[in-house]
Amino acid sequence: MTELAAAKAALKTQAVETPSWAYGNSGTRFKVFAQQGVPRTPFEKLDDAAKVHEFTGVAPTVALHIPWDKVDDYAALAKHAEQRGVKLGAINSNTFQDDDYKLGSICHPEASVRRKAVDHLLECVDIMDATGSTDLKLWFADGTNYPGQDDIRGRQDRLAEGLAEVYERLGDGQRMLLEYKFFEPAFYTTDVPDWGTAYAHCLKLGPKAQVVVDTGHHAPGTNIEFIVATLLREEKLGGFDFNSRFYADDDLMVGAADPFQLFRIMYEVIRGGGFSPEVAFMLDQCHNIEAKIPAIIRSVMNVQEATAKALLVDGDVLAAAQRAGDVLEANAVVMDAYNTDVRPLLREVREEMGLDPDPIAAYRGSGWAERIVAERVGGQQAGWGA
Amino acid sequence: MTELAAAKAALKTQAVETPSWAYGNSGTRFKVFAQQGVPRTPFEKLDDAAKVHEFTGVAPTVALHIPWDKVDDYAALAKHAEQRGVKLGAINSNTFQDDDYKLGSICHPEASVRRKAVDHLLECVDIMDATGSTDLKLWFADGTNYPGQDDIRGRQDRLAEGLAEVYERLGDGQRMLLEYKFFEPAFYTTDVPDWGTAYAHCLKLGPKAQVVVDTGHHAPGTNIEFIVATLLREEKLGGFDFNSRFYADDDLMVGAADPFQLFRIMYEVIRGGGFSPEVAFMLDQCHNIEAKIPAIIRSVMNVQEATAKALLVDGDVLAAAQRAGDVLEANAVVMDAYNTDVRPLLREVREEMGLDPDPIAAYRGSGWAERIVAERVGGQQAGWGA
Amino acid sequence: MTELAAAKAALKTQAVETPSWAYGNSGTRFKVFAQQGVPRTPFEKLDDAAKVHEFTGVAPTVALHIPWDKVDDYAALAKHAEQRGVKLGAINSNTFQDDDYKLGSICHPEASVRRKAVDHLLECVDIMDATGSTDLKLWFADGTNYPGQDDIRGRQDRLAEGLAEVYERLGDGQRMLLEYKFFEPAFYTTDVPDWGTAYAHCLKLGPKAQVVVDTGHHAPGTNIEFIVATLLREEKLGGFDFNSRFYADDDLMVGAADPFQLFRIMYEVIRGGGFSPEVAFMLDQCHNIEAKIPAIIRSVMNVQEATAKALLVDGDVLAAAQRAGDVLEANAVVMDAYNTDVRPLLREVREEMGLDPDPIAAYRGSGWAERIVAERVGGQQAGWGA
Amino acid sequence: MTELAAAKAALKTQAVETPSWAYGNSGTRFKVFAQQGVPRTPFEKLDDAAKVHEFTGVAPTVALHIPWDKVDDYAALAKHAEQRGVKLGAINSNTFQDDDYKLGSICHPEASVRRKAVDHLLECVDIMDATGSTDLKLWFADGTNYPGQDDIRGRQDRLAEGLAEVYERLGDGQRMLLEYKFFEPAFYTTDVPDWGTAYAHCLKLGPKAQVVVDTGHHAPGTNIEFIVATLLREEKLGGFDFNSRFYADDDLMVGAADPFQLFRIMYEVIRGGGFSPEVAFMLDQCHNIEAKIPAIIRSVMNVQEATAKALLVDGDVLAAAQRAGDVLEANAVVMDAYNTDVRPLLREVREEMGLDPDPIAAYRGSGWAERIVAERVGGQQAGWGA
Q1: Which of B110, C229, C380, D31 has minimal Cβ neighbours within 10 Å of its Cβ?
Q2: d(Cα A203, Cα C89) in Å, to the nearest integer?
């Protein structure tokens, strides 16, 4: 098989999980601008997610958020998904929107609040059992706003204790993905602020605990691809939350702010053996001002383009230049792949997959946008607080 | 008059304006944690603000936010304030919470939205006429999230045009304070992102337009006191929005994150002749998890402490060390003032002003916190969206 | 003329000035790694610069640095350049490497040091007279390391006074380009730290004073293209110092760290009418570990590629999408240009200019690298301290 | 014993190691400003370091840097130190100033360079045997400047292999302290860029490998005290390199840029049981423009002041407020300690230790500064390259 053929084959196997919440309304602390046609139920979110998969062919699963996507019958939800051609993916916990969580959840100074938070996580594993999801994704908003507010080390002890209880509950084939975040909503300390902290906890928990890299959750200037390479080397990279940023956790469309960085990340993923089902590639974005479904389609395409370019890096030539200490040539090999216009290649891939080569145009031509605006009238639009 | 006496005299004249919105609920994009006893009307906000002034003696005015503080009768509002010992201060415009403003307000691509935004600003001047406020404070959430979304330069032209119309409307003794912000809620471009942009616009508008420095609105590492010194030198410093930050626009209590920075800022204020009624010292903070009124009292005290330390810098000794190029000695003079515990001095100042030397304890002992929790039942708590 | 033809025509007129010092040794504070074949005289630097122009066709001028490039006979130097097909460009002053400048130059607390610094700047204008250079490029390392070390405002006064004297000395057709820098080598205050400060000084000086944007001289996250658009709108953009950075003022090859940013900058240049001889496009880089001449060739090519992509943005379609408030479409128009592989286009441009389509390969095949290694033996290699 | 007495007792046991290189010349990449009286030999550096200990009483050891402090007879050097009242401390390796190290040392693509680097580290352990030093401090300048330049993961493998060989060489009572650094002198990847990477390597190496926190080696906004608390909890905190920064690795005097941060760090040190001989407290600073010996004295005093304040935090009251979720009160307890002027307490401590209460004045009055200027004439001043 030629290299190009290998790249195409790999691209056809790619899977990008889309998050149910990205189909609902989101915004900043200043304002949530509601959009027309936004889903009102988890079922409608799945309908939208299915459209993304229908037109891209590489978005076969949908992450859920509990309690935002709480339903009485998860089997029915899973069946609904399958009928539309997608599956349920990771279960995301939410321990940040209840009044009890004002000072934290799993790290809260009060045992009763910690109990409530851990119980929620255990419930999420129950839901995984019901949906067949294999990944429990944990992001904790826990932290403090002021020096002295709470005991930094005590909070770590509480975190470790809570995670251990949840870890024990995981069944065969289930795992825990621990996300870190530099800051927000806490503004002084965050209890899992960096990959090192997440790694240290996962290491102690065991092989079912792995780290999630959210591309928007780092200090300015952080070299994310280095972290990816390191976590893969440590066999602790569980997955990605993709999005992009110019400033903080902006949650813009992945690839929109720094497409070269996304390419470098995907290169390290492939280099380190992470382009596999063991690593979950998920979107975690906010479409505050742009149309949501096409923005998600565009995001999936951006991941595809970065992946295609990364697949085109000529590894042998690169390795030779690196061994020779030829800085310019080694850099040129990488840039040569990056500067390639891979859109024709991806159009071919899509056609070979029986898809329209232009997913955005195909979606726009499908009438779906108009239909949901017309049909989704009344009810309560989904949003972060819904 | 001794230097200490001069410092005490200056501290007694200090005025820190508190913002009506800080008494209401606030939060992050993830969650607003409501607190008990929060005001439900602009009148109740003034009641709380009056308590801050009652116990600190240096918070005589209250900034309003339109439309959050819209009332039918501003004269009644002003009278209510005066009856409680405070006055109405700056009028803050809000052009970011209407659905029309999704893509901007005064910089919006559509003329009709710009018209609406400018009309709101003109209405704010009407309210200034009614309240006797002299300062129109303008913060624009305008910007873009994605490269290409709008024309950067075209937006500047629209901004200039809109500001010019509002400037013309200002009466004698009224001025326009233009605030800049590094980012948020826009995540790619912000239309007034730095002091340079605000300065350039104010310069063209004329002497009634001045720049506001919000201490949380800068890129990481920015030397804010340099900006303060420069704006004072250019006679374009209109005022401050005080708060503090570890990461982005965290809006923590002023002086909580970097008290040394606050001291350096106040030193440049005094050095540059800015400790005068010409410069407005305002708080602009969010008390998301801490009790609001005592947090504001503490913030006012933090400003007092930084000011007291700045007043204690021995200018003659400092100047001599600077002239001599004695880096360590010059730094030591400044640090000597900073390392002084000025709390005893401020207790004296308060006692001489007829106040309790410990404002926090006095507030706690006053029963106000318990009273508002008991009385403010029912109704709609004030918040950013109220 | 078609759009493509217009783009090609524009690309043929492009001019990127290379700096004499980039051909010499450079390094970090930890170590300067000397390279073989490095020039030992300003004449040899011009020989190397001529090679860059020979193979790229768009690097016709060379910036000098005084005193690094001090010679007895500037007419001879200019003639040497012309014989090799290039011209002398901007004169860069150096007021940071004399022991007297430990605490500053033009802002120094002592008048005698300021006098010396200003005299050096005046001497640079004399050299401009001799070389025919039109641009005096001023970068000041002035600043302080410790709070209190010197008077922030007093230093601004001294700066203004010194610049005014130099400004007066400028002849017809000469101008002053004032560069700003966020930090380094000063670590607390820098006397021209941001575009606002440079702009304010240039505004007061007059039309012959303009601002230089060094792409590595900003706080993390700063939107440089916004500054470019703003300075063009204010008619105060004098030129660029191109390089790239991941962290601080890394001085890597332009386009190496964030090629998308370089594209956005060039888009605003073109949009704002800055793609003209009025704006100087200069490189200012350090090739600490990579071969210098090919690195500079690559840098010139990177600027060309970014420019080509920016020229390909379909302005009409973009403007329509912006007017319609179609965020995704407007962004897509820009990304469509960025994602285009412009290397074939640039190969055509080069062939039409009578050049080898692959400048790097042509340089490597020319034998120049081997020749300078063989010939430049003995003597003192050029470097920042030379 | 009262709390104050306990604090005084603790302060008397404090030990801050000063680095031999801080007594020599240093600078930025732009210029090293030489100072008069700078040591010319390791012996003279020890003479200066002894003065710092003589006047502060808490700087009993001196870190060496190899090869900067290479001597023929380390026993003689150790004896020289002891005769002046100090001891030799950590041995710092240097694998960044030989031409072979242009592309790295222990991570270099070529095995021969890695061999040379590891041999140097092994030689440093030999020197430890000779000097009786227990700590081998490792900072690697290794990294890359350009994407693709080398294989990120391959470099980690090489790093692990090299460290393992050195680890095996460590004798009883000897340990390895691994330092991380965000960036510089490498500008794209750094091979040990964060605490997580250092921690992961130390964990695999074993109990004799521990992490060093250099307070200037973090991304903007990083919460260093969180890292301190976490490393202490993991029993992997080996020591500190103290200095301070406003921007990058500015290497200013510790406590000069953000004294509140230094206090918070010392609070977590004490809280986590790190105020013990197991954790090394070292300075690592550059005194580029200020007089070196008094700057180091001042730095030691700054550490003392931060420690004193941290010791004064009322742990019981704090814990109660934290348990009660009283954010303002908990913060107030911490701020109360920070706002205390501890200089009188430290003057008492010094007097009880038989020292002058004002170390700076005592040093200035000692005539040492004048003496070294007069005596240290001729020879080669020590510097980073010496």
Answers
A1: C380
A2: 59
Residue D306's CB: how many other CB atoms inside 10 A? 25
Chain D: closest CA distance from residue A328 (Å): 8
Query: D251 near D22, Cβ under 8 Å?
Result: no
| C15: contact with B, CB 8 A cutoff | no
pLDDT one-digit tens code per residue, D350-380: 999 999 999 999 999 999 999 999 999 999 9
For A165, the token pair is: 């209880």
Q: Per-residue DSSP letters for B181-244? A: -SSSS-SSEESS-SHHHHHHHHHHH-TTEEEEEETT-S-TT--HHHHHHHHHHTT-EEEEEE-B
Q: Where are the beta strands (DSSP E) in B58-134?
A: 61-66, 87-93
Distance CA B240, CA B213 (A): 5
Pairing state between β A18-19 and B280-283? unpaired
Flag if A328 and C247 touch (Cβ within 8 Å).
Answer: no
Q: What is the pTM of this model?
A: 0.98
**Residue D381 touches chain C, beta carbons under 8 Å:** no
Low-confidence residues of chain A, pLDDT below 70?
1, 385-386
Kindly report the nearest CA distance between residue B43 and chain D, in angstroms. Answer: 26
Taking the CA of residue A105 and the nearest CA in chain D, the distance in Å comes to 13
Residues of chain C under the 50 pLDDT cut: 386
Q: Tokens for B132? A: 């006797």
Among D201, D225, D202, residue whose Cα is nearest residue D215: D225
Give CA–CA dist C189/B224, Å, rounded: 10
pLDDT of residue D384: 81
Report all structural domains of chain B as residue ranges with CATH numbers, in order of start.
10-376 (3.20.20.150)
Peptide bond into D67 cis (omega under 30): yes
Interface list for B 198-237 with C (CB within 8 A)? 199-200, 203, 218-223, 225-227, 229-230, 232-234
Do B298 and D332 lie within an 8 Å CB cutoff? Answer: yes
pLDDT of residue A384: 81
Decide if B223 and C327 are in contact by the 8 Å CB cutoff: no
Q: How far apart are CA D246 and CA C149, in angstroms?
A: 15
DSSP state of D20: G
Residues 6 or more apart whose Cβ sits within 8 Å of residue D131? D64, D74, D77, D78, D88, D91
Cis before A42 (ω within 30): no
Q: Does D256 touch chain C (CB under 8 A)?
A: yes
Interatomic CA distance for residues A90 and A93, integer angstroms: 10
Q: Identify the pLDDT of residue B178.
A: 98
Q: How far apart are the first and last CA of chain D?
A: 50
